[in-house]
Write a structure and sequence with these properties.
- With 345 residues, this protein is of the alpha/beta class.
- Helices cover 48% and strands 12% of the residues.
- The chain contains twelve helices and eight strands.
- Strands 3-2-1-4-5-6-7-8 form an eight-stranded mixed beta sheet, with helices on both faces.
Amino acid sequence: AAANFVRLYTCAAVDIARQLTVADPLAVYASSSPLRPPPGHVCLVTGGSSGIGFETAILLGELGYHVVVAFNEVSWQEDVLSRLRERVPDATFTYLPLDLYDLSSILECVRAFKALQLPLHMLINNAGVMLVPFEANALGFERHRMVNHIGPFVLTHLLLGVLAASGTPAHPARIINVSSVAHEIVRDLDSAWDCDPDTYSCHHAYGVSKALLLAATLALAARLSAARLSVIACAVHPGVVDTPLYRHVHPCLKPLQRVCAKLALRTARSAAASVLFPAVCAGSTMHGRYWASCKAIAPSSLAARASTQVYEETMAHLGISTASADPCKAADAVEAAVRATMQPA
């Protein structure tokens, strides 16, 4: 546990130093003429109640998207929608409840989205947890792995049919998965799915969840290309950012975190620009790549090497023994597997 603690905070310190030497993503984004969508284009952003997700919704609204924000704090919806509309009065914002820790909530969110009878041109899997105490859901999935990887994986596949129907060769639908530089602390993925509370390290669990998300994104992108669907996908590291996720940071580091937040950490709006840059400034070159500070960079060799393995293992953990190479058939299998978990034992 101590080694994982040191690795994660060393990784964060190195990344803070790196981001101080590059241009502010918000300035790069603004100077790159972000593409405004045709009328009626829709984006769904998870975790849109605060932090990066909230500011991403703002930037999308400013571009002219109809933005659907999905988050699990149902009691916050009126306040969040009010603040979004105050910032961008001319934009359209819609709320859907979503708890990525609960497969039934993901299924209901997709049902509710489809009931709106809207297209879907962009899905931004932003919601996540960081450094939370050990907890596993009824299916045995630890919270980091469930919220940061399995939940977005399931949501993406359940919405893949809508994304494919909404994209065109000229304007493909886009999937943006918010990963993290923390994936670099993971040395191997042999025990990626282990959930032993006696050996649990929140620092390692967070890094593993982001490595799984990144690896599965690379695998999905390859499958989308092979199937020639009008859908493209990438992963993004938003930077080390001043957001509410730091509420679980080690108590001895909270004073330092507050100082860093003022002097060195990115703002949520700057991080949101970094998240959106590949989707609205880079065009089709975003596909199948890992982005940070508005540039495509190399992911860890482990994430790249293990991408197919992680995709197939994720399917297996959902009860799917053989994952179809066809993304749409794989999506059908995911939906069937999720519905099967809803049946009484």
